[in-house]
Amino acid sequence: MWGFQTMNFFNLFPRARLWLALAAAALLLPSAAFADLNPLILQQLRAMPGGGRYSVQREATQRLCASVRMEAGALRVAPAGARPSYCSGATYLVFLKTVEALQAAGRLHLDPTTLEALLIRGQPDGHGIWGRWNANGPGTARLFHELGLGRNFDDYEEARPGDFMKIFWTPEVGRLERGHSVIYLGRETKGGVEMVRFWSSNQPDGYGEKAVPRSKIAYALFSRLEHPEALARSAALPARDPYLASLLSTRSSVKELRAKSGL
Q1: What is the C-alpha separation between 79 and 167, in angstroms, rounded?
Q2: The sheet that has 206-213: what strands, in order across it?
Q3: How far apart are CA 258 and CA 263, in angstroms?
Q4: I need a surface site. Which of 70, 110, 163, 201 has the fewest CB within 10 A?
């Protein structure tokens, strides 16, 4: 009788099931706080290949999928084969290389199910971890907020090299957006013009650094990796994020984006 009542409770209140799973996962997380991870992220970025051409064609996704695998219970990332490339794939590879480096150093321990969830298998926008990262709008920031991977913010004064950054070239979010997933490298002034420097897969050359006038960026959203151990909570994520999945066909707003990212 008790088991029947419990099952019905969770069917009626799926959010209760989610919060119970999150609480259980939290008990498994290491309690020690991670030191500043931005230098490690920049280290992985510097080890990335250069060039290789920018492309959003199927070949680029196929090569991206093949560049990440599980081997002997650990993540293995081989970005040299992930060319041609596109922006979200480039930043995701740096994110995964950071996870791989932490594992190799014995600083991060993730179970096989979690590592499997990090693999790229063509998940649609809003589905799974890669599908969230690759989505329109605040894909990376939404994932960071859902799992507690780190802090999201939109103030350039708080930004530091090594922060993940989503650039919006126009105020549009969602179906009509023009965006770019990058890793922030800093600001500089050239000829009296404030420039924003970043690394990504950029048109037309592929992997590399680029600088653009800050005035060309309509909005920027930053995500700082602080708690990679929170990836252990990924099993508790809903399989699909309805908000991110909808952004292929619907329009959102900066106001809604900020709310969905925990700002």
Answers
A1: 23
A2: 51-52, 206-213, 193-202, 179-190, 164-168, 219-225, 150-153
A3: 5
A4: 70
Dihedral sign from CA coordinates of 51, 53, 55, 57? negative
- At 211, list the tokens: 């600088």
Of residues 129, 143, 134, 133, the one with CA closest to residue 260: 143
202 by DSSP, 3-state: which? strand
Does the pLDDT of residue 208 top 80, yes or no? yes
For residue 222, what pLDDT is reported? 98
Write the pLDDT tens digit of every residue in 5-62.
Answer: 333 433 444 444 444 444 444 333 443 456 799 999 999 999 999 999 999 999 999 9
Tokens representing 230 are 């929170």
Q: What's the pLDDT at 72?
A: 87
Tokens, residue 15 = 């959010």
Per-residue pLDDT averaged across 147-167, rounded? 98
263 within 8 A of 153, measured Cβ to Cβ: yes
Tell me the domain boundaries of the chain: 36-260
Rounded to two decimals, the pTM is 0.87
Contact 99/231 with Cβ under 8 angstroms? yes
Q: Where are the beta strands (DSSP E) in the chain?
A: 51-52, 68-71, 74-77, 150-153, 164-168, 179-190, 193-202, 206-213, 219-225
- Give the pLDDT mean for 82-107: 97
Q: What is the pLDDT of residue 196?
A: 98
Per-residue tokens: 159: 């930004």
Region of residue 174 (left: phi > 0; alpha: psi -120 to 50; beta: else)? left
Count helices and strands in the chain by DSSP H and E runs: 10, 9
Per-residue pLDDT, 33: 54
